[in-house]
Amino acid sequence: MTEHLKSSRFAHRRMRHVRERIIESLLFLAAFSSVAITVAIVVILVRESLGFFEHVSIIDFLTDTQWTPLFDDAHYGIMPLVAGTLVTAGVALAVAIPLGTIIAIYLSEFAPHRVREVVKPVLELLDGIPTVVYGYFALLFVTPLLQYFFPELPGFNMLSAGLVMGVMIIPYVSSISEDAMRAVPMHIREGSYAMGATRFQTALRVVTPAAFSGIAAAYILGISRAIGETMIVAVAAGMQPNLTWNPMEPAATITAYIVQVSLGDLPHGSLGYQTIFVAGLTLLLMTLVFNIAGHWLRRRFREVY
Amino acid sequence: MPGMSVEVMRGLIARRKRWDIIFSIIGLFAMLGGVVTLVALIAAMAIDGLPRISWDFFTSFPSRHAAKAGILSAWVGTTLVMMVTVLSAVPLGVAAGVYLEEYATKNWMTDLIEINVTNLAGVPSIVYGLLALGLFVYQLDLGQSILAAGLTLAILILPVVIVATREAIRSIPGTIREGAFALGATKWQTVSQHVLPYSTAGILTGVIIGLSRAIGETAPLITIGALTYIAFLPDTPFKGEFPYVSFDWLTSAFTVMPIQMFNWVSRPQEEFHYNAAAAGLVLIVMTLIMNALAIYIRYHFRKRIKW
């Protein structure tokens, strides 16, 4: 073999090596973009919020009971929006958590294989439907239906928005809870049956506690989803900030406020423009708090087999 | 149990067994609750919306007169925005998934990336809208354009694409890679000629599911300032004369299907609600078709490939 051939082969190898390294770096950059996105979210929300807090004291922001940033008599108390968010999310969870858990227990422990194969995808369709369609459904179907029973119910109210949102969240809760229950090893159930327990006793006293860390994760995901849901509440719960804990009243949520402001034409950099970023930051912090709580719950109740 | 008569014990057992049946019935009703809501929702849409659906509905611009209004600008906008979303989210998401499955070593950087992907999936969609408003619309000066909207939705579905890619790649047995390495293939040759082609079906399923989510997303696009009344079409991407393609449409103002529907729902006049129902029906059918397609692809390829 001549020197020349040897060196060209060496060069070829080097080229190959360099190309491999370049490709790996490009792939790494793509993966790293997820970190960049998180950083960008935090930077943008915090930067605009800092601009906001130069004009409004944080005490007023947390304690004022009115949120009227676009009026002449401007008040910047976030509480009405937080209350609206918590009430709609509360109604939604009051629907989604019991129904989702019952469905999960039923599908995992009671239902025949065929029923599960049919019901699961159908329920998951509930999650695939665009949320603005749910908004229509809440405003023009569920609210009139509720008004039949409660004639004094206003056209915009948090109850119907919450109820519809709850149905939308059911598959989140049921799907993940069911996966957690099915991951509980068979021999634990068999032990329970051997002691003479019935199916229901096994499901409730053995499988559910064993899968609780997974079920808690499902609940947390449902809560995050309910807090961040936008279009249902924007369409059906009204857009007026209203400090109330009564779901029969209309009230704006944090998300609905952001939508309302975005529909108008606010100049970039104005105080009104900054309020939607403050609202967004509050929303993100609320989801963060629930996620940390969920993380703690999962740690606390994790069962290892 | 000592001291307990047989009758009492039988009664106890019967009572416990009755609970099994009672719970089965409760479970069935809970499921029915979900299914009935789904049926009621689709029925409500169909009853109000079906009479409005006609050829004209698809070929007319929105209008002040409910009976003349259509969804032309909305479905064209949705199509163009989705094109941008696919073209940006798929390469980025697949590349990230390939890196995490095939290249990443176990270190703090990989952990950081994985935690971020999980957390991004839980961020409320409207927060992505705020990110896009600050970053794309003003910082990068893309304006309230189709490009900005497509990129926003791309970021939104990125976690879905990454997770689907990883799952698809993970299901390919290691022997395939070892075979390629044994023949002298480099890592990238192995990935691009074996791993990726075999995981196409899984990735495609994830992409379609992600898109069916993106197509109904309303809040982030309202946040970046999508208009609700658009009575013109963006510049066409393909031209009759040289250079045949044009990118002017990327910077055009736009509206999309769910925003058009939102606009009609929030009007007080009842005639517009019928338009909203019709638009909603079109949206539901679109998402259902996409979901069915995803299920079909998953099923079809799972049957065909046997390792």
Record the SSE blueprint.
The complex is a heterodimer of chains A (305) and B (307).
Chain A (H helix, E strand, L loop, with lengths): L2 H51 L4 H6 L15 H32 L2 H16 L2 H19 L8 H25 L3 H9 L4 H12 L1 H17 L2 H6 L17 H10 L7 H31 L4
Chain B lengths: L5 H44 L5 H5 L12 H32 L4 H14 L3 H15 L6 H25 L3 H9 L4 H30 L2 H5 L33 H9 L4 H35 L3
Helix pairs in contact in B: 1-11, 3-6, 3-8, 3-10, 4-6, 5-6, 6-8, 7-8, 8-11, 10-11
Query: Helicity range of the residues of chain A?
Result: over 70%
CATH architecture of the largest domain in chain A: Orthogonal Bundle
Shape of chain A: flat
Number of domains of chain A: 2
Query: Overall pLDDT of chain A, averaged?
Result: 85
Distance between the termini of chain A: 62 Å
Strand percentage of chain A: under 5%
* CATH superfamily heading of the largest domain in chain A: MetI-like
The topology string of helices and strands of chain B comes to: HHHHHHHHHHH
* Main pleated-sheet profile of chain A: none
Secondary structural class of chain A? mainly alpha
Specify the overall morphology of chain B: globular
User: Which fold name corresponds to the CATH topology of the largest domain in chain A?
Assistant: MetI-like fold
Tell me what you see in this structure.
The complex is a heterodimer of chains A (305) and B (307). Chain A is 77% helix and 0% strand. Chain A is mainly α. Chain A folds into 2 domains: 3-54; 79-301, MetI-like fold (Orthogonal Bundle). The radius of gyration of chain A is 26 Å and the shape is flat. Chain B is mainly α and 307 residues long. Chain B folds into 2 domains: 6-51; 53-304, MetI-like (MetI-like fold), CATH 1.10.3720. Helix content of chain B is 73%, strand content 0%. Chain B is built from 11 helices and no strands. The termini of chain B are far apart. At the A-B interface, helix 1, helix 3, helix 4, helix 5 and helix 6 of A face helix 1, helix 3, helix 4, helix 5 and helix 6 of B.
